[in-house]
Design brief:
single chain, globular, alpha/beta, Hypothetical Protein, Haloacid Dehalogenase-like Hydrolase, Chain: A, domain 2, eight-stranded mixed β-sheet
């Protein structure tokens, strides 16, 4: 029996086209709550930037790809990138090659400079990524408090950077124009474990919805992993069930399929 359902935001709950949660998805989540089923967010966004869910209320939040988890405003788990990796990044950007790289800290997301690709990504999720006036000062000041980095590079460059700079981190992609970088050994699946431990729910009673590469670990981990119809093909390989697109009420249809509404 499913007691906890985890939802990615962008491309899963929220359409890239409308930047909103559909009415049927809202209805589905409210019906789950009415039945006593816990509902949770599992996103790559930081908590401050969860700003596109309307009046929906959730029982907890897995943010920064599982590296910052909350019940309400209470933090129950946090795992920041090691300062050594941040200093390696600064050295590379200053002395070898300067590429767009945004950093996620509690107060927001900041980037060294903005390109057309950065603007495309920002527009796709309806979120402004400001450039920092004193980027290196920001990195140094927050070297122990950076939850995630976003590298605006191609796959080849990503592999080079992960090998040369981020030796204790790993990368995932939910968008072709950039990669998320977090500590090794983490992911949204760790967030699931922290949340269900808090509530005393068994993993066998969980379900997760996602569409991007950063959702693979939780789709594999949950008892029932569901990929959206608009999900990457790699994501669909690991799903127990593939539903319709986010713009065709895939969440509502999957929950109906599993007799949960």
């Amino acid at each position: 029996m499913v007691k906890a359902v985890f939802f990615d935001i962008d491309g899963t709950l929220v359409s890239f086209n409308t930047h909103k949660v559909s009415d049927l998805s809202k209805e589905a989540i409210k019906l789950l709550k009415d039945k006593g089923i816990k509902v949770f967010i599992a996103t790559g966004r930081i908590k401050k930037h969860i700003n596109n869910l309307g009046d929906l209320k959730f029982d907890g939040y897995i943010t920064a790809n599982g590296f910052d988890c909350y019940i309400g405003e209470k933090s129950i788990y946090r795992n920041s990138i090691a300062r050594e990796e941040i200093y390696s990044l600064m050295h590379y950007l200053k002395n070898k090659e300067n590429f767009p790289c945004s950093v996620m800290i509690d107060s927001g997301i900041f980037i060294n400079y903005i390109t057309e690709d950065v603007e495309k990504v920002s527009n796709s999720i309806n979120l402004t990524i400001p450039s920092a006036d004193n980027y290196y000062e920001l990195l140094e000041k927050n070297a122990d408090n950076i939850l995630q980095l976003n590298l605006f590079v191609d796959d080849k460059k990503e592999k080079e950077l992960m090998h040369s700079i981020f030796k204790n981190c790993e990368a995932s992609r939910w968008h072709p124009l950039f990669a998320d970088v977090n500590n090794k050994g983490g992911g949204k699946h760790i967030g699931i474990d922290k949340i269900i431990e808090y509530y005393g729910i068994e993993l066998s009673d969980t379900m997760a919805f996602g569409d991007g590469g950063n959702d693979i670990s939780m789709i594999k981990h949950a008892a029932v992993g569901i990929a959206m119809g608009n999900a990457d093909e790699e994501v669909k390989k690991y799903a127990d069930y593939i539903t319709d697109d986010v713009d065709n009420d895939g969440i509502y249809k999957a929950l109906k399929y599993f007799n949960m509404l």
